[in-house]
Amino acid sequence: MNEFEIIKHYFTVPGHRKDVLMGPGDDCALLQVPPHSQLAVSTDTLVSGVHFFADMAPMALGHKALAVNLSDLAAMGADPCWVSLALTLPEIDESWIKGFCAGFFELAEYYNVALVGGDMTRGPLSITVTVHGTLPEGKGLRRNGARVGDGIYVTGTLGDAALGLQQIQGKVTVPEQYRDFVRTKFEFPHPRILAGQALRDIASSALDLSDGLAGDLAHVARASGVRAQLELERLPLSAAMLDSVSREQGWELALTGGDDYELCFTVPEIHRGQLETALAHCGVKFTRVGRMLAGEPGVELMAKGRSYQLSTQSWDHFRSTPA
User: Fold this and answer.
1) Is 216 annotated as a binding residue?
2) CA 144 to chain CA centroid, nearest Å
3) Is 42 marked as binding a ligand?
4) Which terminus in the chain has less CB density within 10 A, N or C?
């Protein structure tokens, strides 16, 4: 098959969204944005050897490529709508493409996201995904809204994806009963779309956790001009984590490991009761892990009432070692 045959056979799927006026096949997609709505757009590139192992299962890679972008929409409180995909492939491997599409389109169908365009070219393996979502005017969750006195919260448990990566790399031994769990956390992240939507009128700020809680929360603190104080004993760690490494190692993975794609958000005390109700309806576990204080913007770590210093740093593309 050539490029155009591949696109027609694997990437042209029947459209079910009435807001897609023109999908793949023309120079541009034509999309109908609902009235009184704002458009949320996010793009991520995944590069072989940097963001994923070259031998990662294509189905898992297809899922993750879309999931990490949908997680950005979740952090904004947006409704997922459309996606474009650009693939750079070293060669045409139909078996790989079939597996990739299975993972990608299964997640797209789950969230009613339509593929509306993209590109395919030859070169080192990389994947660029752009997602588009909508939300009511003025309801977007931003990083710059946190205020002194707000509580700091996270969804789910933290560090499990990083633990899964360390298991794959042979750096830790995870008990057998947890191995599938942590590998799934790493390879098949679950974007918190419903939780993000539920937080629109409750949270003062939000973002998704892609690079570790410490580094990601620092973005909120700087954007908002406040200081974040985390109480490490409050960090939600799974049974898999606690049975695999020490509590302190678990803290480090939660704070710097990355790839969780949970939400971190701040909530004023006045909305605390609303939060309990809103996220209970979503079936999402959440934990209060700290508070926002006055002072120099940054993140302060506290353990047993004392300052805690990290031994590792959050992910940085130009500092961290590639996968």
Assistant:
1) no
2) 19
3) yes
4) N
